[in-house]
Amino acid sequence: MHILVIEDNNDIAANIGDFLVDKGHTVDFAGDGATGMHLATTDNFDVIVLDLGLPGMDGLEVCQRLRQEARQQTPVLMLTARDTLDDKLTGFDSGADDYMVKPFALQELAARLEVLGRRGKGNKGRLLQLADLSFDLDSLMISRGGKLIQLNPIGMKLLQALMEAAPSVVTRQELEMCVWGETLPDSDSLRVHIHGLRNVIDKPFDKPLIQTRHGIGYHMVDPDALPP
Ligand code: CA
Q1: Sign of torsion over alpha carbons 202, 206, 210, 215
Q2: Residue 48 C-alpha to ligand 1 middle, in angstroms?
Q3: Do 217 and 169 form a contact (C-beta atoms < 8 A)?
Q4: What structural domains does the chain harbor?
Q5: How far is the CA of 74 from the centre of ligand 1 (A)?
Q6: How far is the centre of ligand 1, averaged over its atoms, from the C-alpha of 6 (Å)?
Q7: Rounded mean pLDDT of 13-28?
Q8: 99 Cα–ligand 1 center, Å
Q9: Which residues have CB less than 5 Å away from ligand 1 (the ion)?
Q10: How far is the centre of ligand 1, averaged over its atoms, from the C-alpha of 222 (Å)?
């Protein structure tokens, strides 16, 4: 794996680096947040080790900006001192995928990075697929049976929620929360938008994917994947 270590303590950075290189990984280093951001956005890493306490831009800000401004989904493992353990929840809010409290065992760090790296690979492109329908969450390109499908933003949110949950049922309340939050425009809105979604996703095709569970909600199922 290609790993970026953003850590201002040279001894810790060198320890981590030596261990990971011994394990066969390629490691790049940054000693502050700004350099780390720069490397993370200009090079391709499988996973990033990010110290929380950094001079200038701290680890939380680096992580937030990576996710929000640079739209980077590279998995991040945050390192934090024990006295800032409370920050761990904030760390997850900032978009970190895992955290470890210093001092930590290098063996465990390496194992966790392996897991994150694999997960990151699986997410690359963030493509949702169900039967012949695919939804690329990065490019927002939706196609079914090789044909491109146009959806409005509400339709996209509904489709994403349903495809991510598939084949599980998503309740009406969950879908409403996901699209409108607490301020539902009108009690019939969801039904209307699901109807619109069906018109483009299902109607032109042989097999409907969106199923209604009356009184509960909706789910998407690949009809060919159903047990007979
Ligand atoms: Ca530090």
Answers
A1: positive
A2: 15
A3: yes
A4: 2-123 (3.40.50.2300), 127-225 (1.10.10.10)
A5: 21
A6: 9
A7: 96
A8: 14
A9: 8, 51, 53
A10: 49
Average pLDDT, the chain: 88
For residues 27 and 17, give the distance between their C-alpha atoms in angstroms, rounded to a whole number: 6
* Cα 203 from Cα 208, distance rounded (Å): 7
204 upstream amide cis, omega within 30 of 0: no
CA atoms within 13 A on the CB side of 154: 18
Q: How many CB atoms are closer than 10 A to CB 141?
A: 12
**Calculated CA dihedral for residues 178, 142, 44, 113, nearest 10 degrees:** 50
Q: Residue 114 has which token pair?
A: 């392996």
pLDDT in tens, 79-118: 988 666 665 556 566 778 888 888 899 999 999 999 888 8
pTM of the model: 0.56
How far is the C-alpha of 60 from the C-alpha of 151, rounded, in Å? 34
Rounded distance between C-alpha atoms, residue 58 and residue 66, angstroms: 12
Here the tokens at position 5 are 């270590």
Length of the chain (residues)? 228
Dist CA 68 CA 174 (whole Å): 24
Report the DSSP pairing between strands 98-102 and 76-81.
Answer: parallel
Long-range contacts of residues 183-188, Cβ cutoff 8 Å, at least 24 apart: none
